[in-house]
Design brief:
two-stranded antiparallel sheet, mainly alpha, 2 domains, f41 fragment of flagellin, N-terminal domain
Amino acid sequence: MVINTNMSAQSSARLLMQSQTQLSQSLARLSSGSKINSPADDSAGLAVSMNLNAQIGRNTAANGNVSNAISLNQTQDGYLQQVANALNRMSELAVQAQDVTKSDSDRSLYQQEFNTLATYIGNVATKDFNGVSLFGGAILNVTIDSDANTFGMKGVDLTSATFASLVTNDIGTLGTAAAALVAVKDAITQLAKDRASIGANMETLTAYGNQLSTLNNNLSAANSQIMDVDVAQESTNYAKYNILVQTGTAMLAQANSMPQTVLKLLG
């Protein structure tokens, strides 16, 4: 039996320190709801979680871009619905102007309405969405994923000759009214193609948006497996470490009192 070196006390102190460290980690996990509160808890898991969080953020940004592009298409189609109404009326006027029972005076009245509608279509061609031209015809590349890959969104060109020439058409005579009708019918055909393109854009962008949302859900679930604490399991761990700390403290006190038995030998 020795006095200067109490191996039992040293071993008890070491084990008690380990239990206290585990208890502190368990408390931190339960209070934060996260399994990883410092890189020392799980360095590899933390690195994976950081990458997942970064990708989730980029996906969210891309989804915002897709949503804005869909809004642009919806705005385009809202205008084009009114343009379609205008073109339909212009075609009616061009046919009415070819009525042989109408005088040139009557046709001049039709011409006024025809010109007003053509001017309206020309005005729509200048509209923009947050500073971006709606009907300039340019292809807009929309970001669709976290790697910044893009989808080329087809544009609508209301400044093309098919639409721009309408303002110069004349339905003041039988002959010119027939020519104007051909021009309006061409514009209606082109508008139908443009609205079909817008519909395809919206359908494709909606699919990309749904894909990003689903991917983010899956990435969040994967990140949760790494970062989120299982409260039931951790509560069990906390109870275990709490008991170990209490028993370790009691055993350390016992180990520290053991050298006092030497006094009995000296007595």
